[in-house]
Amino acid sequence: MRAFAETGSPIMRKWEEPKKPKARIEIIPMIDVMMFLLVFFVLLSLNVIPALGVKTALPSSGVAQDLKAQKNAIITLAATGELQLDGKDVVLEQLAPKLRAMQKPNEKLVIIVNADRSTEFQRVIDVMDALKGNGFEAISFATKKK
Fold first, then answer.
1. Are 67 and 142 in contact (CB under 8 A)?
2. What domains does the chain contain, in order, with CATH numbers?
3. Burial class (CB in 10 A: 0-12, 13-18, 19+), 127
4. Which residues contact 114 (CB under 8 A, 6 or more apart)?
5. pLDDT at 6
6. What number of other Cβ atoms are within 10 A of residue 8's Cβ?
7. What is the 3-state secondary structure (H, E, C) of 100-141?
8. How far apart, in whole angstroms, are the C-alpha atoms of residue 94 and residue 112?
9. pLDDT grade, residue 54 (50/70/90)?
10. Are the C-beta atoms of 141 and 113 separated by less than 8 Å?
11. How many CB atoms lie within 10 A of CB 103?
12. Rounded to an integer, what distance in angstroms lies between the CA atom of residue 43 and that of residue 20?
């Protein structure tokens, strides 16, 4: 037996559709990640996280200038006599060939000598002689401002 409405048509039964959960963006974990990144980069920029290589106590200068951003090679002379090129140990005889390998054609390679203030002066002169004798002219010395 069929049920009919007063109009004479069959009765339609309406089913409730299940409610779909709306997509939500969880912002708390995203804030946690952003705070972690912020703290990491602040500590890195403040040199709290140690850099690679030998620590040096730079000499101070009243007329120190900032270098323009270029392709740099950093030579470190430690107080203990260690010599490093971009954080890797090197001997004086290997310095020029390794610098030549770093240098790209038609590009000036700026060499920054990062010598400890207690480094023997003769050692600094030896490095300068090795660089100048192999055609490297753009040599700068790292200092800190007074």
1. no
2. 60-145 (3.30.420.270)
3. buried
4. 56, 58, 74, 75, 76, 77, 142
5. 59
6. 6
7. HHHCCCCCCCEEEEEECCCCCHHHHHHHHHHHHHCCCCCEEE
8. 17
9. low
10. yes
11. 16
12. 45
H, E, C per residue of 19-50: CCCCCCCCHHHHHHHHHHHHHHHHHHHCCCCC
CA–CA dist 32, 64 (Å, integer): 40
Identify the residue whose tokens are 């920054």. 112
Q: For residue 93, with 0-12 CB atoms within 10 Å meaning exposed, 13-18 middle and 19 or more buried, which class applies?
A: exposed
Tokens representing residue 16 in the block: 């409730």
What is the tens place of the pLDDT at every residue in 29-52?
Answer: 999 999 999 998 888 777 654 555
Amino acid at position 2, single letter: R
> 3-state class of 72 per DSSP?
strand
Antiparallel, parallel or unpaired: β 110-115 and 72-77: parallel
